[in-house]
Amino acid sequence: MRQRYVVFLAVIALLLLATVVGAQNPTFIRGDVNADNVVDGVDVTELQGYLFGGTIACEFAADVNDDGIANTFDLSYLTDYVNSGGSEPPAPFPNCGEDPTSPQAGTSCCEPAQPVVPENLPSMTGYGAGVLVLLMIVAAVVIWRKKQSSVHA
Ligand SMILES: [Ca+2]
Ligand SMILES: [Ca+2]
Known about the structure:
With about 150 residues, the chain is an all-alpha fold. The protein has helices at about 1-20, 40-50, 70-85, 125-150, and strands spanning about 25-30, 95-100.
């Protein structure tokens, strides 16, 4: 009974870890609707086309004023910023990043700048998570085998 409890806890821990590692909010630059990492007049033109039924490379970026919907107010905001020195769009801007106010699911439009890691050191994001999962599996198996041997002894 207790070994089932341990295995159950190990499975739950693995699922939680997989959720934390796997759940990432998409990254983008607000206003950069063509996803070329620059917010300029081309984005104004692309956003205008999008609002009239066209397509854009990055739909997250179209909500320029960060009110949760892409509409003509966003076009006005972006036009003012690009052409008249108006207010900058809210974060993520001007660098690539996640939406701090209303995270969503979807595909990222840009890659945030990564800290420089020396080539001979592994990145902890990939290796660290993998090693942690492996250690948890080994621990669960060791505990389970120990319980099995004590039951049969
Ligand atoms: Ca752009
Ligand atoms: Ca908006």
